[in-house]
């Protein structure tokens, strides 16, 4: 491509931003800017979404606006597992058919949705709210780790804890930290708690939420013992 063509392309890009500022009404520009701040949506997709909404009847955008306005109203965190909930406990914790002696530890509520889609798992969850990231100042106290250890301490029937943090550096380090804490706790109280880690079938560095159902089922099936706590 010649120099002339490149400068023409640049000119077109600059013009587009300028045109947007010059001719778009403020509320249209504002929604484009707000949507563009969301993960995975750039200015192009944001513009496309806004123009789509503009082409639909007003009720469509009213409904969307109302859903966004009410998103955080009456929303709670489950008192037991920290999943999003409408009541004190989430539907998974309330379900008597689920095995509460099997706890899967995940980073976020989004991971729960991914794992539930695989329909393999019949235990319960514990959501950490992230992983340990010393560089960003996120230590164990910033996560729901104290509450997890309290759950482990209180549930004398607990059989297994599955560590399902993401298979990246921080996820692995957090899993190691938790495995040690849980096995120390088990040792101290003279109990045997199996601590397992989901299988390495997941691509390294990947996020659980993006893994497909089959990969997740296999990762779950192939879980291995992480740290063995000796019999009392
Ligand atoms: Zn719950």
Question: Can you walk me through this structure?
Answer:
With 232 residues, this protein is of the alpha/beta class. The chain folds into two domains: 3-69, Orthogonal Bundle (Helicase, Ruva Protein, domain 3); 76-227, Dna Topoisomerase Vi A Subunit, Chain: A, domain 2 (3-Layer(aba) Sandwich). It contains nine helices and seven strands. The strands form two sheets. A five-stranded mixed β-sheet has the order 4-3-5-6-7. A two-stranded antiparallel sheet has the order 1-2. α2 crosses α3 and α7 (145-154) packs parallel to α8 (169-188). The longest helix has 21 residues, at 3-23. The radius of gyration is 23 Å and the shape is elongated. The chain starts with a helix and ends in a 5-residue tail after the last strand. The mean pLDDT is 86. The chain binds zinc ion. Zinc ion binds at residues 78, 80-81, 83, 89-90, 92-93.
Short description:
This protein is an alpha/beta fold and 232 residues long. The chain has nine helices and seven strands. Bound molecules: zinc ion (ZN).
Order of helices and strands: HHHHEEHEHEHEHEHE
Number of helices: 9
CATH architectural name of the largest domain: 3-Layer(aba) Sandwich
Q: Sheet with the most strands?
A: 5 strands, mixed
Going across the biggest sheet, name each strand in turn. Answer: 4-3-5-6-7
Strand coverage percent: 5-15%
SSE layout:
Blueprint: H1 3-23, H2 26-36, H3 43-55, H4 58-69, E1 76-77, E2 84-85, H5 91-94, E3 99-106, H6 109-117, E4 123-127, H7 145-154, E5 160-163, H8 169-188, E6 194-197, H9 213-221, E7 224-227
Parallel strand pairs: 3-4, 3-5, 5-6
Antiparallel strand pairs: 1-2, 6-7
Helix pairs in contact: 2-3, 7-8
The structure holds zinc ion.
Zinc ion binds near residues 78 and 80.
